[in-house]
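Much of what follows relies on a compact textual record of a protein's fold. The record below shows the convention in full:
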Amino acid sequence: MRRLLFRLLAAAPPLGDHVPDSELLSRFVTSNDSAALELIVRRHADAVWAACRRMLNCDANAEDAFQATFLALIRKAKQIRTSCVGGWLHRVAVNASLKLRERAERVSCAEPDQLASVPASEPTEPDPELTSAVHEELAKLPERYRLPVVLCDLEGMSHTEAAVALGWPVGTVSGRLSRAREKLRDRLTRRGLAPSTAMIPALSPPPHLVPNALSLTAGASPAVVSLAEGALTMMTTSAHWTWAAVAVLCAGLVGAGAAVGLSQPGTKPMPLPPGAPPPPPVADNPAPPDKGKLTDDDWIPKPGSAKNTEGYKVKDGTDPPPSAFPDLAIPEPDPKDPERAEKYQAAFAKLCPRLHGTLAIKIEPTDDALRKLLKARLHQGVLQMIRIREIIRIGNWDARGWSEMIECLNDMQAVAVELWGNQPKELIPWLEELVVMAKEIERFTLIRIRLGSDPPQRLNAATRHRLAVETALLKAKMRA
């Protein structure tokens, strides 16, 4: 095997001695070239191990996540289309580590006396919470930002070496690396963490891990196979969420304002694209359309209709009830736009600065102990929602998380009403942001039901929550 590896390296171009990962994967797929696979594993082992070990406190678990990552590479080698797989591998490693974390939270294998015998971390070790959060946030960055960080910070490449590996100009690598680090600092700061100068310390894997990863071509343990499948499923679910959301919107399946601006009673207009203004009034009806004027069947379907009380026929494209506030919604970016994820986050931050954490809750000098407690409780709800939205973006989602999210938002609504029930001007902005978030939950739930990931009754619960928040907001506006 060593001889094959040296022969492969000798065949590489003399400038930089770098064979693209895409070519190595092609050799492995077409001719089962073990030397090509070994070179890929050795190139990216440091980055994968750093992600696994920093996110997991146990070496054994980190080794399982490490092997699961490269098993995923072996299984998906035909589908990977990139000149450098470092960014893809890092994302799989983070997902595998999150899967192991989730399992550890559900079933702990360690007894109390065993936990007491675990040696404490060395004082020189970096903050585990910070380094784990760094890898989670790095996995969420677009690949053009993630790749320079993985190659330069985790694998120790110079900017020139990374430029050769990626086929980019050196200036592009330097610029994107700088922007990626800045984005990481901003995201960590929003999570309440203090990023240090060396946010991503390098970490080399134990010597036996690379040979173990190469042996995966002959088979892997059931635990590693299950972990690899779980990590790949998380990535697939996340991708389906992005594309399905756009498909649903384009088809008019989640039209919060689809029934707005009716020209004649009982006549339904075509669904409007997100953000589009309502149509002008017709000649025989000079009054402007009332956004709150909807047909009775839109709100409570008649028996036997497409929207009957048997429940939403999601597979047939039936919409949930309309919204009393169609303007309070985040439009989905163009699916072909490479910046769509960032634009979506920017739109959410602009529309929901309180839930996004950019507009902090203030303690006023006149606040007594009760109001301080309520504001602290509301602040904790904001932090919880930020973390839940991060989990959704990664794809690590389950029924328990969905219930926690609904419970958290209901509590935030109750606290906001208790704090500012007699101050509509203070209460309304909070309720408006909660309406936006409720619509996102409803849309997300609808998509997961269409994908077969959630039961249909969960959409009823999401819609009830959204209608409850809209009711509170309407009451507040009427008082104002």
Q: What stands out?
A: The chain has two domains: 2-107+124-238, 323-479. Residues 222-250 form the longest helix (29 residues).
